[in-house]
Write the structure tokens for this entry.
Amino acid sequence: MSSAAKVGVFMLIVLAILGYFILKIEDVQIGHGTGARKVTAIFDSVAGLDNKSAVRVAGVRVGKVSNIKLRPDGKAEVTLDVDPDVVFHPGGSAHVANLGLLGEKYIELDPGPSTGPVVPQEQSVVLHGSQPASMDDITNQVSAIANDVKAITASLRGVMTGPAGQQRLEDIVENVRTITAQVRDLIAANRTNVDATVANARVISDSLRVEIPRLADSIDRMATQMNGTVGENRQDVRQIVENLRTLSTDLKTTSDNLNAVTAQVRSGEGTVGKLLYSNEAHDRLTAALGSVESGVNELRNTLGRVGKMQLDLGLNGDYYANLPAQSGGGDKLGNSRSAVWLRLTPNPERNRFYNVELADTPYGKRNDKTIEETVTNPATGQSQTTITQQTRFDRSFLVSAQAGWTLAPFAVRLGMIDSTGGAGVDYYLNNRIRVTGEAFDFGHRSGDNNPHLRLYGEYVFRQEKPTTPTIFLRSGVDNVLNHTAFTLGGGIRWRDDDLKYLLGSIPIPK
């Protein structure tokens, strides 16, 4: 069996194993279904939700999302495959939730109150859904709070400072004086009631004239008893009086301190005084709130731009058949090419993107060496010089970096390809088939007489899912103008949102 056939068999075995793991990871059912119940949920928005996302009841996974489509009224209709053991009641609902702060989205179901009737299995279930607040809602609320704080600060300054504030304090004192005068007039107007009160007091005094002797006797007996009690507890009474004297001294010191603090505040000294009577404190607070508002706006703009950014990563490998030995293939450098690459699209609404690739090529780097050897004949003494040219190809890693523009259905790339200047064109027949042509090495750095031309087609047989990447196969020809080699290979690529947010702080031109 030839080397190409052995490699082909090996790749088929690897692809079969990879397909088996994909089927297991994606939970793809082959043959008849499991009898899952179809449930329909209507949402205003399902941003971040994908097919085969989990469906949970009380946090327990009971199904998955089987289809998402847009209704004519602009809402999203989501079809759910739910375990038939889940019992639904009228009044159920659905909610889009997150597993943690940055976790994947799933649908949380509320089957309805258990006290209600059970919806039969053969009857369709339609639920109304809701979704959590977005990051834009949170930033809008923070901005509104900042505006409210600024308005309160401006009101305090207008009320507590300046001649107008002094006038308000004088008005309060005048109001207290007016209320005192009104109370005095009220007492004068009710003089009759006061006289009646005095008459009642006189009657009470007459009654007390009779009761006072008896009260005096009782007080005398009580005084005698208290005298004995005080005599027995004289030391305790002295301590209580001493404590009262100390407390009075402390209260006087506290009062003096309060007067000093009040004077400092009124004169504009200290933190509180500057806050109430100094324009500088108001200006600094206003500037700080302005900085907070500016920071919130900058954060909103940054999150908006990072949210639009798309970052794709990929790995691919190709087998080179019929690679000529003089170009670095054969037994020297191997017959395969592998690469890892990154594509960054700052704004999908613009037609600009950037590609970066690191590749290991079978062509290698050409090194020419001249060997000069002189041999002297001992018998004749004559010397003979021999000059030999040696060419060697060393394996090396090549770097590609291009800027590209999308001109649907084409994409044009310019920059560096395999460490040399070049250009490439991609033609997208549909979302699965792509044809690519690349031309580079116009300066003959590899030792070939003509530029390096590469043509290949790519077919995607597995689209990207939440848990698996895009898988594709490709085939074509390489270096067709010099030493043609046929290629066969494949690879994977995926969109990485987590790495995108880590790169979100890098300045990107608008």
